[in-house]
Amino acid sequence: MRTTRRGGRLATRLFAAQALIVVAGALTLVIVAVVVAPGLFRDHLNRVVGPVSDDMARHLDEALARALLLALAFAVAAALLTTLAVSWFITRRLTQPITHMAAAATRIADGDYHARVSASGLGVEFAVLDNAFNRMAGTLEHTERRRRELLADLAHELRTPIATLDSFLEGIEDSVIPTSPDTWRTLRDQTLRLRRLVDDIDAVSRAEERQLDLRPRLLRVDEAVDEAVRAAAAAFADKGVGLEHRPGPARATVEADPDRLREILDNLLGNALRHTPPAGAVIITAVARSDEVDVAVTDTGEGIAGAHLPHLFDRFYRSDPARSRSTGGSGIGLTIARALAQAHGGDLRAASDGVGRGATFTLVLPRSNAA
């Protein structure tokens, strides 16, 4: 109701303003015609027929005035009606999109994030406004969906450690569970798990909403890969998994935040190590293309079923037994890695020929041709 009344007042003001302009123009025309026309008529009459008597001049002035007033009355009335009709149509066309947009904005404010406005067809300016409004609504819908998913995922993930903590505390209170070092270690592990989960949620939320403090600079991809490989070498050696870096034939340069790029690589290598059995191998390569750089991490591990590939980057997705909680993953690492890649203008992709046939995760980054 409030939106409709505001739209009506705007239409009334626009129509009244245009009507006032038309009326002012008509009155100006009448006044000028009445004041100026008789003088011009007498001047031309004297030039053509010479001086006339006062009585004839008075009759001629009256005839001219009646003719002018009659002609002006019909002309002004027709022009006024036509102009007011056109003004009413234009006013209605201008206020309708604004009214619809206000109604859509009200629906969004009330929680209906599916509301959109249709194209008004009133020119480039209104097209830009319609597009901007719909993009804003889409962003709000995406953010709200992410918020709900986050709350649901968070509730699900918090349930297990909280239940463990609650059962242990209850057992300690009832003297069923002794306060041994193992007990305190278990409680500490659960609190660390909660802290890690909170940190991961914060990281992925910031990355997905593009709120990261990125500090990009030019760097060579192979040098960043070398650092990540050296840092992960000890863990791979302990498990008996081979790790090899195969530099590309061309030096690939990208503009990226070194710390964030290292975080992506560490996540991919850690993921490959968790799902590759002893005596397996992980190979990381960097291939420079015309406009992008592909960094592929290929393992000979458990592989991924085709049905699960589209969901690998969903938060807390663990439907595939090969990617279960028992392997030590948080269920959110790949989500963070892809969000970081997209924040750099790139992407993260996954491929696998099936269970038991390994997997390949490819980090795609825009290539920089700067030296």
The CATH topology name of the largest domain reads Heat Shock Protein 90
- The amount of helix comes to 55-70%
Q: Structural class per helix/strand content?
A: alpha+beta
What's the domain count?
3
Total beta-strand segments? 7
N-end to C-end Cα span:
62 Å
The total count of helices amounts to 7
**Shape label:** elongated
**Uncertain ranges:** 1-8, 319-328
What letter string, H or E per element, gives the SSE order? HHHHEHEEHEEHEE
Question: How are the secondary structure elements laid out?
Answer:
Elements: H1 2-49, H2 54-109, H3 124-173, H4 181-208, E1 217-220, H5 221-239, E2 242-246, E3 253-256, H6 258-274, E4 281-288, E5 292-299, H7 333-343, E6 347-351, E7 359-366
Parallel strand pairs: 2-4
Antiparallel strand pairs: 1-3, 4-5, 5-7, 6-7
Task: Name the features.
371 residues, alpha+beta, Helix Hairpins, Heat Shock Protein 90, 3 domains, 5-stranded mixed β-sheet, two-stranded antiparallel ribbon, 7 helices, 7 strands, 62% helix
In brief, what are we looking at here?
By secondary structure, the protein is α+β, with helices and mostly antiparallel strands. The protein has helices at residues 2-49, 54-109, 124-173, 181-208, 221-239, 258-274, 333-343, and strands at 217-220, 242-246, 253-256, 281-288, 292-299, 347-351, 359-366.
